[in-house]
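Subject: mismatched residue count in predicted assembly?

I count 227 residues in my input, but I want to confirm that the predicted structure covers every chain. Input:
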Amino acid sequence: DQQVKQNSPSLSVQEGRISILNCDYTNSMFDYFLWYKKYPAEGPTFLISISSIKDKNEDGRFTVFLNKSAKHLSLHIVPSQPGDSAVYFCAASGGGGADGLTFGKGTHLIIQP
Amino acid sequence: KAGVTQTPRYLIKTRGQQVTLSCSPISGHRSVSWYQQTPGQGLQFLFEYFSETQRNKGNFPGRFSGRQFSNSRSEMNVSTLELGDSALYLCASSTRGVSGNTIYFGEGSWLTVV
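Triage response: the counts match. Full output below for your records.
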């Protein structure tokens, strides 16, 4: 059973526009959420995180929104740049960390010039 | 500040052999966790070590094991390798543990089993 879901395997966005990546989760015990960016043959790079006590966290061009009632979070990238083209993973932890980080399957973001 | 360092980066093993992968965490980080990435299953948690003790374990067979040393460096071992063990193995470190904290990943070790 997939507890963290990223339903869009890929997303294409024009350079300069907003990229919105979505993530849904089913485990209500999750209390900390993270977004990672990954290039092929490299390890994931941490982007931004949010605790369940907040509904928004911002860092430069990246903003994460959390809707606990809907068990949904999203990552907004504004403006999108060519270097943002990568696979983005949503991850969650909680319940005392019993299962480490639980990852979604990733969304491949492609920024079009 | 140096990041998480994993060795070796690439290796090829034969079915039935065993393999040991090494990870040096970010200085000051006491938690090390390991993940397996495959095209079919995505990123899956293997185990976490904190202060030389295994704190959490994912749903993997006993052929997958690990340990952590007093300097926080960690190793993972896979015995009796199977073709399905071919994957990218990622090590990550954090200050206090996985839950509620940001964890930082290394570049990974690419294992191919033939």
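The first strand of chain B starts at residue 5 and ends at 7. Marking this ticket as 'not a bug'.
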